Amino acid sequence: MIRQAVLLVGGRGTRVWPLTHAMPKGLLPVAGVPFIELQFRLLAEVGVEEVILAVGTDHEKEWRAYAESVSHPHVVVAVEQTPLDTAGPVGEVRDRLDDVLLVLNGDVVVEGRLTEFVSEAPALPAVLALVTVEDTSAYGVVVVGPDGAVERFVEKPPAGTAPAVTVSAGIYLMRREIIERYPRGPLSFERVVFPDLVESGELGAVTVEGEWLDIGTGELYLATHDAVAAGRSRLVRFPEPAADPWVAVEAGAVIEPGAIVEEAIVMAGATIQSGATVRRAVVGRRAIVESGALVTGASLVGEDAVIGGGCEIVNGARVAPGVTLAPGSITFSPPQ
Prior knowledge:
Layout: E1 4-8, E2 29-30, E3 33-34, H1 35-44, E4 50-56, H2 60-69, E5 74-80, H3 88-92, E6 100-105, E7 108-110, H4 114-120, E8 126-132, E9 140-144, E10 150-155, E11 166-175, H5 176-179, H6 189-200, E12 203-207, E13 212-214, H7 218-229, E14 247-249, E15 254-255, E16 260-262, E17 264-266, E18 271-272, E19 277-279, E20 282-283, E21 288-289, E22 294-296, E23 300-301, E24 306-307, E25 312-313, E26 318-319, E27 324-325
Parallel strand pairs: 1-4, 1-6, 4-5, 8-12, 14-17, 15-18, 16-19, 17-20, 18-21, 19-22, 20-23, 21-24, 22-25, 23-26, 24-27
Antiparallel strand pairs: 2-3, 6-11, 7-13, 8-11, 9-10
């Protein structure tokens, strides 16, 4: 079993801003549960007792407050004072690392059985968890030999031309001595460490199966809720059986009678007034969507924003925190 893991949660979450204006991406709720807790549940399956959060300075206060609220696992907050890429944060905490540990990316969870991943890992200094994808054009493909060793990486090959359909799941089993080979400072797993290990024949891989939950963009965040609502996640469920279409409403949010809210996330303290429509979108904390307003198309409304009646927020638009849009000030429909 594995006692320790490092979670890479230092990113600013720019692709889901404004939701991350005052909240780390890893704390965004999924069916009412902070996303990071899904990773904790996964790690518990292999006995992880300590998790080191590699965080940036942008949300240090929020991460420290969260860590203090968690009773298990033991959570340690390690702050990057300057950006250190993906492997650099692990190098900065090398003095407190176990001989063998897990490293996970912070905005995805692949619900593969970690016990099987660990038990099937080849006897190499570092091993990647892989998943299969249908369209390889958006990923770096990992080509694995019959002995379980990674032979090469192929960056974003067009569908139908790829030598493999396996890509990194963002979960790594590794020995501490790998990171000790490099000086402290910025360091990339993808561009430096893993290519070096392939060249020396020291990188292995195991393919895992399970739902891939990703909150890296607004549409992916909503798609994660699609998967949960459909019962495809084994790590999280809606507090009550999900309706069709589903709605994820946090405590303290108000959806007035006469509002239309479908396949949407409504965060704590937000209000959707009667006559408003929120469909396939996210409304941040304490935001107000007034009667007659439309929010749709994977659009994101920041906390404390006000969407005036008659406004149309569509096609992935992002409304900044605290902004008040006057009634009818943004519309794509001609007057009747």
